[in-house]
Amino acid sequence: MPRWLIFFMIISAFEFLQIFLILTIRWVVTNRTKVMWLIYTFILIFSHLLLYLGINRLYPWSFTVFVMYLTLLWMYFLSSVVVIVLYKVSGSKYPLLFKSLLPIGYFALLGYAWYNAHYPAVRNYNIQLNKPLASPIKILVAADLHLDYMVGNRAIRQLVALNQQLKPDLILLPGDIINDDASVYFKYQMEDDLKQLSAPLGVYASLGNHEFYGLLEENLQAIAKANITLLRDQAVVIEDRFILVGREDQTNPYRKSLRQILKNYNTSLPIIVMDHRPYLDEATKANIDIQVSGHTHNGQMFPMNYIVGSMYELAYGYKQKDNSHFFTTSGWGFWGSPFRLGSQREVFLITVTGKN
């Protein structure tokens, strides 16, 4: 999708939501005094100031604040539409009741979206490979941590506690561990909490697009200080049982193909791949056994889950193609605003057995 079209859609949605907000306020507050007109004027000036700061990224926080405001407007729109439709269906009776429901519905939706973004689900999968495997492997997948000032030490400790409860054999973090800039990560010493993640077969990661958006070398140091093994277009053989591959994100123009990475390995062993973005064709052709991905956040905010669903063959969940098993998780952190609607903070727990 061209950038100009994305920009046009964002601006159009923003202006529409602003008008909707003012119209619903006028419906609730029938007073037409100068004070109300001053409030409308303030809303328009304030919101367009946020728009200007956000689009031009004049401050490190300005784009995030704009996205947050846009998200709040969107959830207000969703909750208000439900109330207004119910009001019309009722024959426009009890206007005071339905006007009271506007803020109640809005804050209820905010609370639900906040809960989804901060309290995790565990998605369990059981698969059997078409290759021998001496004993089952239990894999914990947590993508898209997006560690920064909104997803910080508390979120890491929550993941560590969940890992201790689930006791996986292997932990995989397929990209976007750092949200652009590692300065907040280092300021709050997040590596001390992140290094508490442990599993018998190790903790491994690959890079996502957001590690490349910031200072890459600092982001690499941040991951290394947490005692996480980062695979950059590299493969390792773990206990002679399976091959683990970590791919560079497609942001890197020099990313290798799977065949290049695996050319010196015994591919009769099961092959597990971490690839941040859920593209399936190359992995299917290379006959890999498992690929774990993230990136999409399952849209994070309704109806983006349907939009990303049209962009990727597997925007979320599990799919088998031939002998290859693919997983795309909605991730642990969030981007832009601390809300999720139509998706939830989660980990995948994948139990893998062989054909023997």
What is the helix content?
A: 40-55%
Secondary-structure-derived class: alpha/beta
Number of strands: 12
Which term fits the overall shape?
elongated
| pLDDT averaged over residues | 93
The CATH homologous superfamily of the largest domain is termed Metallo-dependent phosphatases
Listing every helix as H and every strand as E from the N terminus to the C terminus, the arrangement reads HHHHEEHEHHEHHEEEHEHEHEEE
Tell me the major beta sheet. 6 strands, mixed
Gyration radius, in Å: 23 Å
Instruction: Predict the CATH topology of the largest domain.
Output: Purple Acid Phosphatase, chain A, domain 2
How many helices in DSSP terms? 12
- Regions with little confidence, pLDDT below 50 for 5+ residues: none
CATH class of the largest domain: Alpha Beta
> How would you write the strand order of the largest sheet?
1-12-2-3-4-5
Q: How many discrete domains?
A: 2
Range of strand content: 15-25%
What gap, in angstroms, lies between the N and C termini?
46 Å
CATH architecture of the largest domain: 4-Layer Sandwich
Protein name: Calcineurin-like phosphoesterase domain-containing protein
Keywords: Membrane, Transmembrane, Transmembrane helix
Organism: Psittacicella gerlachiana
GO molecular function, one term: hydrolase activity
What can you tell me about this protein's structure?
It is a single chain. The protein has 356 residues and is an alpha/beta fold. The chain has two domains: 3-117, no CATH class; 121-353, 4-Layer Sandwich (Purple Acid Phosphatase, chain A, domain 2), CATH 3.60.21.10. Helices cover 44% and strands 17% of the residues. The chain is built from twelve helices and twelve strands. It has helices at 3-28, 34-56, 62-89, 95-118, 153-166, 183-187, 190-194, 209-213, 216-225, 258-262, 281-285, 304-311; strands spanning 121-128, 137-141, 170-174, 203-206, 229-230, 234-238, 242-246, 271-274, 290-293, 317-321, 324-328, 346-353. It has a six-stranded mixed β-sheet with strand order 1-12-2-3-4-5, with helices on one face. A six-stranded mixed β-sheet has the order 6-7-8-9-11-10, with no helix packed on it. Helix 2 packs across helix 3 and helix 3 crosses helix 4. The protein is elongated and about 75 Å long. 34% of the residues are buried. The model has no long low-confidence stretch (mean pLDDT 93). This is Calcineurin-like phosphoesterase domain-containing protein. It comes from Psittacicella gerlachiana.
